[in-house]
Amino acid sequence: MSETMIEFRHVQKAYGSDNIIEDLSFSVQKGDFVTMIGSSGCGKTTTLKMINALIEPTAGDIFVDGTNIRDCDPVQLRRSIGYAIQGSVLFPHMTVEQNIAYVPNLLNKRDKKRTALAVDKWMRIVGLDPSLKERYPSELSGGQQQRVGIARALAASPDILLMDEPFGAVDEITRSSLQDEILRIHRETQITILFVTHDIQEALKLATKVLIMDHGKIQQYDTPTRILQHPANEFVAKLVRRERHTCLLDETRIGSCEFSRAACGMVRAPYRG
Ligand SMILES: Nc1ncnc2c1ncn2[C@@H]1O[C@H](COP(=O)(O)OP(=O)(O)OP(=O)(O)O)[C@@H](O)[C@H]1O
Ligand SMILES: [Mg+2]
Fold this sequence. Notes:
Mean pLDDT: 87
Bound molecules: adenosine-5'-triphosphate, magnesium ion
Largest sheet: 6 strands, mixed
Strand content: 15-25%
Number of helices: 10
Distance between the termini: 6 Å
Helix content: 25-40%
Order of helices and strands: EEEHEEHEHHHEHEHEEHHH
């Protein structure tokens, strides 16, 4: 039986008279890998930041693991939620090792050995060579910095991982290997992930469910297969048109084409806990 990990109930967010999010309701089950995609400025980052209480909703309620986050201490809440974002999120004056050890050090102050083992483990999992431990962020490539950011978020052993375009600024090959690594991490830890991306291919590859937003509203929230086979409206159909037509067959025959992502099972099956 699946358990709800995150739930939005009629959430609204406005800045002054500017209504960014009108009425957002959805839930994420424990162990789900939800990718969120939508046009720039449609409210994806705002949605993520409301979950870890970096932004407060104007109205409505958000529940994390059954508790209304209005009743939570934000610092405590953020300890159970990893947050990995694109760009310079590392502490520049700390080495790779110190960056990753930051939260484990807070949690077990005395047990240095345990923290050191955790750092080794997460560096291995995200594919960082141990020789990079003593380097500073400015001495790393963009892809390496992103891996450190992900290792740091994961080292806190969070129940939920929020990722805001984490693979945005890397080359195709690094991006593809980071995607494979996050899939493996998800399989191994069964952590609940919410992942914002602008890349529909990435969204479909990673997700157990894809949340498609436009103008602060959900256009479709479904498994990759169902989104490809049954786009809910024009907006979604346009977004996935190329992914549906990789086999170059017409609409009526797409379901039977061996090259069609919609038919050949290249997308992930939904997680059943
Ligand atoms: N502090 C703020 N004050 C006023 N408006 C804001 C503020 N923060 C964000 N906004 C506006 O809210 C809207 C949603 O922003 P948000 O960052 O959530 O978009 P997004 O979907 O993440 O976009 P992108 O894909 O470009 O990252 C945007 O129009 C933005 O300009
Ligand atoms: Mg954003």
